[in-house]
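Predict structure. Chain length: 312.
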Amino acid sequence: MVSEQSHMETASRDNDEIDLRELFGALWRGKFLIALCIIAAICLASLYLRTAERKYTVTYVFAPVASDDTGPNLSGLGGLASLAGVSLPSSSSGDFKTFKYLLKSEEVASVVSEDEELVRKIFAPEWRAESGIYQRPPDGPYTPHIRTLKKLLTGQDPSAYVAPNAARISNWMRDAFAASEDRDTGFLTLSSETAKPEMMLAVMERVTQETDRLLKERYIQNSEQTMGFYQQQLARARAREHREALAKLIAQEDQKLMLASKGSFFVAEPLTNPSVSLHPTSPKASLVLALSVVLGSFFGAALVLIRKALKP
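Prediction complete.
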């Protein structure tokens, strides 16, 4: 019994070795076909690299405006302020998070939409200079077929064309650039990979300026009411610690109000000048060519094995 089992295992190993030998032998005999497939894949990759749109990486780094965050913790004032209808100012870290959120909001986009020249650059394919209006871009060769297929699958008619407005600009900004905050440094980095770096730089500068201005105006509008609330609480306070904490809060808010009135950066300030990569970062030629070699090898090997399997 034992001898029969060992004989079967030996036969199985022999069959495996024979199959591997046949496999490598078939691939070796079809080496010219595999090489031809690799060359064809490289040619296609080269054609793609010659016609592909070159994109550059744009980065813009911001730091929170320096402020003293070691102020007293008077959480009880928040409830009193809400009952009095007063909106207490947030900390600088909260302002910075609000800055990041508002960057791509419709509120900021509505201000950007007032810059007609910039909007025309963003939606250049839709702008008709001869008629002075925006129109739906002309359909490509496959667009009608794609539209018909989409209607068959979803049952929905194509949406009506909407000229550039705040909603469209906001949606465009969500896709055009990314905003990421570094947990270690607290810096906010705006980054984008685009074929129009000059336009993207203009968009980033305009958006960040308008967002900072918006937060500054909101603070100035609420500062008088907030400072009055602090003054009332200071007049009513009896405990020394409470009075000292309120006095420090008033000093901090007064300093912040002075910063808002100077016309400089209020919440976020550029850490460095915006930068554009010296060379295109997309498409990556080395990665495309390496992938073409791998795919060409697999495709050629598959053809060789299929041809071997179809032979009688």
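Summary: The first strand starts at residue 56 and ends at 64.
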